[in-house]
Amino acid sequence: MTQPTVSTAAGPRRFQLPSLSTLGPLIALLIAVIIFSTQSPRFFSGTNFSLILQQISYTAVLAIGQTLIILIAGIDLSIGIVMALGGLVMAKLATESGVPAVLAILAGFITTMFFGFVSSIIITRLRVPPFIATLGMLGIVTALNQTYSGSQTISNLPPALTALGNTFKIGGTAITYGTVLMLVLYLIAWFILSETAPGRHVYAVGNNPEAARLSGIPIDRLTIMVYTIAGLIYGVAALILVARTGVGDPNAGQTDNLDSITAVVLGGTSLFGGRGNVLGTLLGAIIVGVFRNGLQLIGIPSVYQSLITGILIIAAVALDQISRRKA
């Protein structure tokens, strides 16, 4: 019996025309920029584009973790609330327990990694589907956030916790260090996924787990690694969020599950795993940010912003389905 194999070696690359799922988001972004530029004189400016990047920075970082998980055909519905808990741990330890800021940040990272690890253990050892495992984790961590914080926001943070919210100027436009960190993380994630063996294993597991297993890839170990690394990424997102808002908020992150998934699918990553590009996720996050910013500038109520976000995610998944049927 011939066993299916998975190639993890980088072969010669041939030029291919971009697919519809790749070009579609870019075309949508260009059309949105043109429309909003004609409708609001404040939209097309360096200051506004910098603001959009600031607004999406922590959600876009969260979406890196979500991309890794979706590439192995998983999903994480606790992503936003785990980020909020990481921010609370950093803020509470630094302000109320007198812990040095660096150690408080490290504790926040360990906390978010722990919950990513626990989710992966539930999925790999108890064989609970990722949707159910992380939905349960969402409820557990939501309760922990309220209990740990006493349902109160934590303010008066030390400067080290808000340093990523500081800015520097390029051509008169203020850029936050959080935005720079977001872009650096995307480049690192892109390099690991496209140029390293572990990155190719992630695609192999999502594309065909049985073939990956028969090729010697330890699927459970890889799943645990991916969820735990995603947890670390949630911790970085928590630090960016705390720096941007200046508080630890137990109610933060409640809409970021949907926002991160929207960014991933808009960027061309298949919800069925094994196909996608993390740089596409960055494009998806920018599309969401541009739509929300543009609609706000032209005076569209926030309820319609959610409506359009929902339409965008359905359209992106429909395009993915069409692309899969043609493949």
From TrEMBL:
The answer, when asked if Chaperone is one of the entry's keywords, is no
List locations, semicolon-separated: Cell membrane
Going by the UniProt record, its keywords in alphabetical order are: Cell inner membrane, Cell membrane, Membrane, Transmembrane, Transmembrane helix, Transport
One GO CC term on file: plasma membrane
What is the membrane topology listed in the Swiss-Prot or TrEMBL record? Multi-pass membrane protein
MF terms from GO for this chain are:
transmembrane transporter activity
Q: Which chain regions cross the lipid bilayer?
A: 20-37, 58-89, 101-123, 130-148, 168-193, 222-243, 263-291, 303-322
Q: What is its main location?
A: membrane
Highest taxon in the source lineage: Bacteria
Q: Does the keyword Transcription apply?
A: no
Q: What is this protein called?
A: ABC transporter permease
Question: What is the originating organism of this protein?
Answer: Deinococcus ruber
